[in-house]
Amino acid sequence: MKLIKHREVARAKVEGVGALLISALLAGCAASPEADKQGPGAAETAHGAPVYNIGCSTTLQPEHRVELDLVDSLMEASEHYAALAQLESVSFDTQQHWLRWAQLLAEVGQLEYAAEAFTAIAERCGSFEAYHGLGIVKVKENELAEALQALARAKALAPAVAEVRNDYGYALLLNGEYGVSAFELRTAYELSRQKNRVVANMVAAYYLNGGKAAMSQLRRELGLSSGQLAAGEQLAKSLGRK
Q1: Are both 115 and 177 inside the same structural domain?
Q2: Which of 6, 13, 34, 198 falls between 20 and 30 A from 51, CA-CA?
Q3: What's the pTM?
């Protein structure tokens, strides 16, 4: 498994040149507090290659919350390069630091390396967040078989997380599995506190699985508006189905 130094990712993307991206060997979860403080840019070397110790701790100290809140605020403002720069200025003391790093690699267009990073975190820590992130990246890479495998694992680990069920349902939708997709997306809709983020996917799955009759069922059972139904039908048709 190779990992790329996030500093090299940012530099290559910002400069827009074919800079060489430095690969790295991957070590297991850190075995000591000192190892936990290693970040991607502060690796030791073995046989001439950097070795990264992924920390699996989910315990956030106050200083970690401050660090990650700043990164999150930049991400919410779509300032992903700034978020990556801010993240690389701190030690990667928790799994959340590593997950943000992998997510930001995807946000700056480095999908291959984001997938490698999420895979490494998933293998070492076994968290649903890592499998979920990997599944999203694989959907973006149009590798649906791998996406479905990762998202199914995330669902098994966290069956009541709306975002996981939504993304799994959407991947099933793209894969033409409309009945199962409708089930997953209905579950995501009922779990979600932000139902507008899920409703179009759910309506599209129902439409593709059962046509207008299924959409009428949704209107009766959930009280969906004409606009919500129309948006879902439009999404279904954009996927190439009438």
Answers
A1: no
A2: 13
A3: 0.78
